Amino acid sequence: MGENDESEIIEHHDDEEMEKMRTPRNHSQSFLESVASSEKDGYSSTQSSHRLLAYSDALISIIATVMILPVAHTKFQDNEELKLSIQALLTTKVAVYLMTFLIVTVAWAAHIRLFQVIERIDDTLALLNLACMMLITFLPYTFSLMATFPNNTLGILLFCACVMVIGLIQALIVLYGFSHPFLLNDQIQMSENQAYYKRRILEVIMRVPIMCLFASVFSAIFIQVSYIILAIVIFLPYIAQCLKWIQSKAIGGQVEDSPDSVPFYTYHPSEPLSKERVEAFSDGVYAIVATLLILDICEDNVPDPSVVKKEFDNNLVAALQEYGPEYLAYFGSFATIGLLWFVHHSLFLHVTKATRLMGLFNTFSLAFVGGLPLAYQLTHEFPRGSRNELEAVQISCVIIFFAGLFQLAMWVTALFTERETLHPYVRYGGREHAFMLAKLSLYPCVALGTFVFTCVLSRFSTSIFHMMEIGVPFAFLVLRLLVRVALVLLRWLFCPARNDLDSVPVEEEDSQLPINDIVT
Amino acid sequence: MGENDESEIIEHHDDEEMEKMRTPRNHSQSFLESVASSEKDGYSSTQSSHRLLAYSDALISIIATVMILPVAHTKFQDNEELKLSIQALLTTKVAVYLMTFLIVTVAWAAHIRLFQVIERIDDTLALLNLACMMLITFLPYTFSLMATFPNNTLGILLFCACVMVIGLIQALIVLYGFSHPFLLNDQIQMSENQAYYKRRILEVIMRVPIMCLFASVFSAIFIQVSYIILAIVIFLPYIAQCLKWIQSKAIGGQVEDSPDSVPFYTYHPSEPLSKERVEAFSDGVYAIVATLLILDICEDNVPDPSVVKKEFDNNLVAALQEYGPEYLAYFGSFATIGLLWFVHHSLFLHVTKATRLMGLFNTFSLAFVGGLPLAYQLTHEFPRGSRNELEAVQISCVIIFFAGLFQLAMWVTALFTERETLHPYVRYGGREHAFMLAKLSLYPCVALGTFVFTCVLSRFSTSIFHMMEIGVPFAFLVLRLLVRVALVLLRWLFCPARNDLDSVPVEEEDSQLPINDIVT
Question: Which UniProt keywords apply (chains A, B) (predicted)?
Fold first, then answer.
């Protein structure tokens, strides 16, 4: 059995390498193909889609986080009367941000699906994709119009128009792809059922624009109906699949697809999601969120020379001291987001295949990450020891907690199907398992701890928060050491008898890996 | 000879594939290595550096473009008295933007160099790199302090402090890398001169922080001296190499290095620059610049419900018409930037190796791209037919012209060493050569044409500009057709006799490629 596992490891590696190599391979293939195709129809510019997708991911990640800016720029005052109305405004803005984030990631998921079918591009497809991107980047604006004027049909009409045009462009891309079959996914290219695939994919793609057409027609009559239709359009596939999945888990019955069904466009929670693109999108979000505060600082926190001359007697240091809290917020949020990225990076290093459900948890985690700079800014904005400051610190802790928790959830999801989705090292009993668990649970635990401490010692909330900020990077640096000490302690506490029986196998495959190195 | 060339093509492909495969290969290697190393010293978490670099590129590209925001948010008025002071302010801000862009790209180039030596990372290096990134993202702020208060030592001290700490962290990374040799570049890893390489690289890295130390000491005595020192620090290596290169070209003498010299840290114009990272950085800049305007639109251009009720009688469409110019500017700039990205993408598809000089031209091109949204915004901000509007349109044309011209310059640079840097298809006489030339020169030509037209027909400048905006995407769609027609015309005009003599070889290798497909 041990040997069996070993070969599986190698197989996994091969799969992984195959997947990663596909891009360069396409690249060289594309030229051969382009020669072949140019001999056929005189038209040749087939290209690998790798960079097009990277650029699209960068654009979408910026757009997903754009609606956090209106939230971040809401000004707070200690005036109790204004506070309520500002809080209501803020709640609306946060809701808009979260909804936009969700909708943009839905569009992003559709984009991934499309380019899992179309694996190679040419100039025409690249230009069509750019047009599609332009409309996706406009979605947040139509959505914020909808939120600001819920009873006006304009917002919903604009939104529907954008979605319909995006759908049409995607259908055009599919049609173009199927008329140039060398652009398609190899599996579909080889298949004899191309016509069936084409119809099925077009059906799925056109479902959304057609529903949007209905929504826009209804908006003239009864606007609430259109909102309901829109909600159904976007979330029904996921809800239906979720119910089906729960059902299949509960009853244990197998939900079998027809053997001909397309491997994409299934909305299964275990449908593969391009790991590369999840990474690229997450990198984009982490990068833009990490620099959100420095954008503001560079623009707003350079004092006016005349003011410095008049009010601070040309003492620049004194003038800049006013902005102290902003610098602190910047460094704090950059460090926290950087470390959350680091955890994400460590996790995906050991993930061999990303699934749709993991993608969903990733989206939730990223949505919380987007709120971090704002929370940090709040932390330093209120007078020391005030009730507001305590609240701000606690909000920061809650955001960090959930951002970290959803990262942990991704790993737990992956563990359920670990043979397919995880590298052996981080599976149950793998030699990096404990270390990965420690990495992923460090932030949730620390955030929870800080939250509890601030509740008990509310007077020192800021100091506790600052200590947390400073301590966590060092905790990550010595984490491996800590995990080893903890493992030794656990082993010593719970099974002292087995301490000298090193040969007890936790799992067959581990005995082949030098797990002892970690424990001893 | 023909066969020789053929084999070279294959070799090129192999090199390319090798380079692209390196990442996944490292990935699998890292695990093997980590097992090996963990057996040696019990410490194991070697990883591929691919994603760390992608994240760093994303961060740096955002930071490089951040100083365009203060430029973009400068408000214009038609008041003649204010205009001069605003123009002066704007010039300063544009200068700050360009200088920041240049300095950040210098830091980025140093980062590339460092991670061409350190090819694999572990957790400690990842955390050190994040610390380094945090300081790099702070550079623009120190620089804008320097620009706003040129006579105050604080800005220069902060800048020097940042640079010194960045230098120290980089030195730490190098020392850490050389103490764990399996993290190093294979070439250095195999070499027997590791100690020499280490000393040489540390020398180059520490040169800048030490000069900055001098600059900060001098700033207390005579501030102008420190500015000169800083300028020398940053640009001397490039100027020296440039002079050396010109000299070697002019005299024809060979500038020979000692055979032991490090392949990196040479500052040669032909020093290789990771093509992957140039692409990632460019993608980041194009993405952030393309979405700059929508960021503002989403935040500022959602009207207040009470205002719409009072002033526009609840007519949202009328209220939004005020923002018409902003939407136009957004779509125009998004399309232009998208198409410039498309050209860049097409070029780098055929580039097999990027050099430092190409990187420099790329930086210049990107710096102009960064100014595009602003120029487009200006175009629509002034009353129709005014003098300001004409100027704004012309500025837009100039910016597009230079952005495109530097892209063309990259290709021309690559053509000088085409055997190393370009794919055979786009070399002189290759079958995509004419098409690539057309793609790269379309924007400079169109921008130049629009500029000339607006000078002649200044009354219709906006209409001409809009027609250009709308026409260019379609021109790209039918470009291949246009090129074919142009080639046939050229052939017909200049060598009608050769028209039927298809066997005349332009170059040996082309006769093997189906060049006829394009021409006929």
Answer: Ion channel, Ion transport, Membrane, Potassium, Potassium channel, Potassium transport, Transmembrane, Transmembrane helix, Transport
